Amino acid sequence: MRSRPPPNPDLTYTDLGALPSNLVGEMLGGELVTSSRPGTVQTLAATALLSTLGGPFMSGKGGPGGWVLLFAPELHLGGEMLVPDIAGWRRERLPELPDVTVMTLPPDWVCEVLSDETEALDRGSKMLTYAREQVEHVWLVNPDTRTLEVYRFEDACWSLLAVHEDAAKVRAEPFQTLKLELGSLWKR
């Protein structure tokens, strides 16, 4: 795993609050990183995915339940602050969702919806942080290329398990009990 600079003690939560409302701010590798809010295509993909997974995995309707899934939670992990598009925790690790504005427990699964602006950040600094925090699975969803990449963290590195494309119907870890229809993520 690549080494990273230590967190910048001069960066504060106030720095994030001072950003214009059209930007998402994250503190990664000792730097304040900003990107535009997700576009409608990225938001649609994230919303469709969360909607599809929510019933079977959060409430147990048509699936096993056992998960807490959140849209764009603020994560404070190891001195860094990230905002994944979707994050999930297994109920055995998070039996009850706390009433907080930030989560400090690393998720078990993260989904980043890529855009031209965020792809390098999502694949780079954020994947490094997720690895350091031992997040078990990361999904990278790309509405432009209509792909889903599924990664598992094992043996101290990311393993690419699969790349699914277009309108495929797939079973993807850690939600492999559900056949996910990728076409629903791209439907405008």
UniProtKB/TrEMBL annotation:
Q: Which InterPro entries match?
A: Nuclease_put_TT1808, Restrct_endonuc-II-like, Uma2
Organism expressing this protein natively: Hyalangium rubrum
CDD domains per UniProt: DUF820-like
What is the official name of this protein in its record?
Uma2 family endonuclease
This entry's Gene Ontology molecular function terms read: endonuclease activity
Which UniProt keywords are given for this protein, alphabetically ordered?
Answer: Endonuclease, Hydrolase, Nuclease
Establish whether keyword Hydrolase is in the entry.
Answer: yes
Domain (Putative restriction endonuclease) spans 26-179
